Queue: 4 jobs
Job 1
Amino acid sequence: MKIFGNNQPIIKLEDYLASLPRGIISGEDVQLPDHSFREIFEFVNLGENDILYHLGCGNGKGIAIALEEFGVKKAVGIDVDRKKIEEARILLREKNFANSQVLNEDILYSHFNDATVILFWFTDTKIIEMMMEKFEKLENGCKIITIWGPLPGCLPEKVDFPYIINQVPFKPAKDLQEQLLAVFGTKCIDFVNAWEYAERYTKAIGAPDAGNDRFLTIIQSLVIWINAKNLGVACSDEIPPAIKNYMGILRNFFNIEVEHLIK
């Protein structure tokens, strides 16, 4: 994590995020902890009749947990990173799973028409938009698990934030406001909502010994509240004192400016 000294120039939040390694922002280089896989699989009620595809499977831990602890019929991992796929193959070979497969290929060209459950954690909008055409052709009832946000233009089937179930055929959202409120399950979003959900997200994706959880939670809570404010679904037109305080912390201690994002 890059921290800026007080003698450094102020940088906008989006420029700061852009300065981080691409894989951190997209989720491509972030391995979910084991407890998150278990939470996701329990949430989606994964079981013996399911065929699971993990798109961006990393080292294969999610595939192993799905097979070993949830007894799925079949589990397939796909990742474009050859090194990660080799790690996954070693892991699954050691556990001697006959009903598993890991593929070193680009998910944009992968086939997963037999899937009943898909774990899909990508934040790159171009990738998501390109995958939507493939998702929409899947069998009715197929569940796609996303983290943080639902698929674009869709209302979630079920939410246990930050985990979201999108189910085929997708339910269209009237607008971003309807989608946002459906995700957070409330009529409006205040600072308490924003902080609670940001904290859930940070705990879901972070390692148990992560040392920057609070910093990430501050950023995520500000992003949630600002998005709500700009979409007209914040609980107040005024900026809450806590939001002002955290904006000040980012500016004064990290030289990161977020006020310009408020419309």
Note: The chain has two domains: 11-20+187-261, 31-183.
Job 2
Amino acid sequence: MSEIENIDNNELNKIRNAFKDRDWNEIKSSDSWAIFKIMSEFVDGFEKLAKIGPCVSIFGSARTKPDNKYYKMAEEVAAKLVRHGYGVITGGGPGIMEAGNKGAKSENGKSVGLNIELPFEQFNNIYIDPDKLITFDYFFVRKVMFVKYAQGFVVMPGGFGTMDELFEALTLIQTHKIGRFPIVLVGKSFWSGLLEWIETTLINAENNVNKEDLELFKVVDTPTEAVKVIDDFYSQFMLSPNF
């Protein structure tokens, strides 16, 4: 079976349209509306999140089931964060995201959901504060909100989307585009293969990353350790949440 036979018609049309010659009127019409849509998403996000106070973004898979140990850990991490004075921001969907919002809600903390419209998997969970649910069309706008309004990042096991969010945060910190906020990876067994590849291939073999960049994140195994990393980071600056 050829590769093209595995692509549905909608995807084929997107590929064909990328090679299609368009006149100026078509470009002006379609791209102008896209710009207005992007602007509206930024404005909506800024207005709803500008006053949420100190929060931690929790990333992780939408496919994780409630009986999975990482779901339970994410729920506990979120609850502990709220008890320590933080609100919780998630991607607003099921799985780890749901667990994060559920944990925050259980402690009456701020529970933010940055949902994304997708053809499968994603729908907003029921544990998000109604005034703090935002649904985006554009991943890049959503990622700005994750980073702009978070004082730390807890990364649970996940797939491509979680890796994208993790490396986005790492890149912005590495390049000094944002402050050096704490990043915590939860689940040593899950992350060990990736971390070994970063060290042996990116650092030692190819010199594409500095060894010091491994200090941009911590790897832990328990919710208590995850929250402690964030608390310890801010205690260095005599800072604490001020809800």
Note: Residues 39-235 form a domain with the Rossmann fold fold (CATH 3.40.50.450).
Job 3
Amino acid sequence: MQHLHINNGTRVPHVSLLRRGIQGRFGLLTAMAAILVMSGCRQDMHNQPKMIPQRGSDFFADHRGARPQIVNTVARGQLQSDTYFYTGVVQGASGYREEKDQLPFPATMEVLERGQERFNVYCTPCHSRVGNGLGEIVQRGYKPAANLNDQVRRSQPISHYFYVMTHGYGAMPDYAEQLTPEDRWAVAAYIRALQLSQAATQADVPSGAQVRDLKDLAAEAGHADYAQPWSLPASTAVQALPHVNSEGNPGNAPANANPPKIVIPATKTAPAAAK
């Protein structure tokens, strides 16, 4: 044992040894205290009176831990009392659902601006900015989209666009996750405004307003070819299916038609393993 000699000749333990002894005793006391505390704990924190999914329970008479929903209750935020607002259809006199040419709220300028913004984000890749069905991905081989400016689409009620955005149609997927009901109605309102703009005539221009040709404006901006007629590049079409003329121009290929047969060359037989 190491010792430290002081002036009177008394030998005492070294300071480091004293420190080690004190730490050892403290650790022993701490461990004993922890054991005493743990031995005094009850099991209430371990066996809590709680419901565990898919387990029974003695608390209820039917011994089921999972409780059925209370009749006539609605979860917070899911009260959809205005069925037309959330579905875009009403029950007609015949008992079948019917669409209406009516918005559930006024078509203010804020609504149209919101619809334009959402339309440009989600609809233009297929339908283009002017709604003629020749969006960028269609020009690169995707199935032709509906021309929103033809006679068929212009005659459809405004809630039809809401219903299609909610459930999809043909090759078009639904956009219920991307667009809220409010935004779907705003896009539908903007589609109607877009149709009016594409079919406008000189008589629709207010008196005194100046009208300029789009081609002249495009030429001044350095885009002389922008206002020219758009054509569909048939050489990049993914499905060489005949168009259905009744569905507008450009006509859509049948939604559920059999795709063209694709011939895949047979794989060559693998050479035999060398012996």
Note: The beta strands are 3-5, 11-13, 89-91, 97-99.
Job 4
Amino acid sequence: MYQVKDMSIESEISANKNTSLKNSNKSALEYDLFDSIVGYDDIKKLFQLSFGSQRPIHILLVGPPASAKTLFMLGCMKLDRSYFTLGTHSTKSGMVDYLFEKRPRYLIIDEIEHMSIRDQTALLSLMETGIIAETKHMKTRNTQLKTWVFATSNQTNHMLTPLLSRFMVLHFKQYKYENFLDISIHMLAQEGITKDVANEVAAQVWQKMKSKDIRDCIKIAHLAKTKNDVNWIVETLLKYNNPSYSTKK
């Protein structure tokens, strides 16, 4: 499958902060956090119920890439006192230190299955008791938090069983083309892209690039003004990123 080198999800999070609720005095429940996601109304409602719960309800979205999981995490990032981390970067970025220092209400984890066992154990303690404890250089520190955990995973076989049991687990299926087309048109319309160009972008990304990543559509649409532009951009990307493509022409 062809893949465009994507900007880091941290960059998307940074852009997403521009429309966050962090400086708003209104309740997060007054906002549609997931307005960029087509469908999944039942899952959206589950998240809203979790936000309103008096006790933390943790949600894990499991499924293949390009199945809207990350879009839900981006929506959750609009919540006040939220913190995002990648499972692959959790230890590197000092997740435990951040929990002690910032005391987030919402912890958002993408690709949680890649977290180290050490961090999974710390997370389990947080979710079970609200207690975070750490021993460094013969010194122990601990604190108690009230934190909701929302996470994604492509699979669960690398997760600790007790940790998995603390989540409400929802399994996603990969997009079919009809879903992909609807979601692409919806998201590109929010970017100011006309429907005919959006249709062409979705078709080219799915059929020529063999990609099911909505973010590929967004990047190409930002460069294209016409359907001819879309075709030229895709041809160019394939030419220089897929060595076997030029030999097939």
Note: Residues 9-171 form a domain with the Rossmann fold fold (CATH 3.40.50.300).
